[in-house]
Amino acid sequence: MYMRKLIFIFLIIPFIAVSAQDAQEIIKKTQDVYKDINDAKATFSSSVKGSGNSSSSSGTLYIGKKDKYRIETKGQTVVTDGVTSWSYSPKKNQVVIDNYKNDKNTFSPNKFLFNYPEEFYSDLENEEKVGSLDCYVLKLNPRSKGSIKSAKIWIDKNDYLIRKITITSSENTTTYTLSSIDLNPGLNSSKFSFSPPSGVEVIDLR
Q1: Staple partner for 71: which of 78, 91, 192, 203, CB 3.0–4.6 Å?
Q2: Average pLDDT over residues 146-159
Q3: What is the per-residue pLDDT across 165-204, written as a single tens digit (0 to 9) for each?
């Protein structure tokens, strides 16, 4: 029995080492792609699964560096310029304005597209298809405690773009699937600010 355990350990350790090395190589290639990106636009679909409920949506995602992003769906528009954030609900005819909070409990697409190697431990889990695209699946574990418990990213084996993200928090699991990715479209800075439409209730929490 002891010898079997010993043999198993000697067999599994090289596999773990290779997986870790592969993950770092994939991350490096992905970083090389994203370091030259000033902004990006993509369409996406998302799903949220929590305790006893689930929802789905689709929309358009705009990203700039320095924590700038805009997420547009049919039911909500979320915008930040890295200083101020706006959350607009057409159904409620209401916009909530607040200071942007860049902390460990704040989700932003930029963290996973630009900063995830610094904030997460990464391991190569397996390979899967996202639609027709062959992707590496990397499991991410946060380096420090926060609302995000774990995450996974699917990286295109051909162009090393992130095609899918799954985030598991203490409350739910959210999945974003990206498509029609347009790199460096030259987005206007106004895309990352928001002017409330006339007649909308404004709740300013700053």
Answers
A1: 78
A2: 87
A3: 898 888 889 898 998 889 999 999 999 999 999 999 999 9
Tokens for 157, please give them.
Answer: 């084996």
- pTM over 0.85? The answer is no
Rounded Cα distance between 127 and 125, Å, is 7
Q: How far is CA 128 from the centre of its chain?
A: 18
In the predicted structure, residue 7 carries a pLDDT above the cut 50: no
Q: What angle do CA 199, 70, 132 make, to 5 degrees?
A: 135
CA distance 60 to 41: 7
Tens-digit pLDDT profile for residues 23-48:
888 888 888 888 888 899 999 998 99
* Structural domains of the chain, with CATH: 2-204 (2.50.20.10)
**In what order do the strands lie in the sheet containing 84-89?**
120-130, 133-142, 148-156, 162-169, 172-183, 39-50, 54-64, 68-73, 77-80, 84-89, 94-99, 201-204
Closest CA to 139 of 147, 127, 150: 150
Neighbours of 81 (CB within 10 A): 20
- Rg, C-alpha atoms of the chain: 19
Average pLDDT over the chain, rounded to an integer: 82
CA distance 15 to 9: 10
